[in-house]
């Protein structure tokens, strides 16, 4: 295993997904110089971040039997034999033409020796609106981490996942007329 072959994850959710799909050997911790010792749930809840972890401390190693699709390839993802496509991933037979559509999430599996292009499923999460007074500890739609604090400044409303970081509310997430914010529903997988 070579961590230089991996890539920096885009979120703790992606780390957790990688752990569930491929196991500990696929999520490399540069600090531990080996596989992560955290569970998928600890990654998904942001517990790693609260213990001082950062995305840049981790590398997601290529899925077993798959190689990264060339940059700019329609749909991105990975290339390999059908037998290496993780369960639940979208896939399509590899072609240069636009006529080959992606499979639905739970359609048939690809033939074992068929060369396919595959990609992880897009996580769909329910969104609800909550009053500003119930925002702390919730995750704003389009964000990956919960709100630690929020406040208004001269240039608009801001929120913080933790000190000292400051972020603007994503467009369309805050309705100042009603004082409500679009957040992911409680109990959703993060």
Please tell me about this protein's structure.
There is one protein chain. The strands form 4 sheets. The protein has a 4-stranded antiparallel β-sheet with strand order 4-5-7-6, with no helix packed on it. A 3-stranded antiparallel β-sheet has the order 2-1-3. Helix content is 11%, strand content 25%. The chain has 3 domains: 3-60, no CATH class; 66-119, no CATH class; 127-184, no CATH class. With 190 residues, the protein is of the alpha+beta class. The chain is globular, with a radius of gyration of 19 Å. A hairpin with a 4-residue loop joins strand 1 and strand 2.
In terms of topology, how is this protein built?
Blueprint: H1 12-22, E1 27-29, E2 34-35, H2 40-44, H3 47-50, E3 58-60, E4 66-68, E5 78-81, E6 90-93, E7 115-119, E8 127-131, E9 149-153, E10 156-160, E11 167-168, E12 174-175, E13 180-184
Antiparallel strand pairs: 1-2, 1-3, 4-5, 5-7, 6-7, 8-13, 9-10, 10-11, 12-13
How much of the sequence lies in strands comes to 25-35%
- How many strands in all? 13
Low-pLDDT segments, ≥5 res: none
Number of helices: 3
Q: Please give the domain count.
A: 3
| Global mean pLDDT | 81
């Amino acid at each position: 295993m070579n961590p230089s072959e991996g890539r920096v994850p885009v979120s703790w959710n992606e780390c957790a997904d990688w752990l569930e799909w491929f196991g500990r050997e696929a999520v490399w911790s540069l600090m531990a110089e080996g596989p992560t010792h955290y569970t998928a749930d600890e990654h998904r809840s942001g517990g790693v971040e609260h213990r001082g972890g950062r995305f840049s401390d981790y590398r997601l190693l290529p899925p077993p039997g798959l190689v990264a699709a060339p940059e700019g390839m329609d749909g991105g993802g990975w290339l390999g034999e059908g037998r290496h496509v993780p369960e639940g991933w979208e896939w399509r037979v590899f072609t240069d033409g636009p006529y080959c559509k992606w499979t639905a999430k739970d359609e048939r599996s690809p033939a074992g020796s068929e060369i396919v292009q595959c990609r992880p499923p897009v996580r769909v999460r329910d969104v609800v609106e909550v009053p500003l007074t119930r925002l702390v500890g919730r995750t704003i739609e389009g964000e990956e981490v919960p709100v630690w604090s929020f406040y208004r400044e001269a240039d608009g409303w801001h929120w913080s996942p933790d000190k000292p970081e400051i972020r603007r509310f994503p467009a369309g997430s805050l309705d100042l007329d009603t004082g409500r914010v679009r957040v992911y529903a409680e109990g959703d997988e993060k």
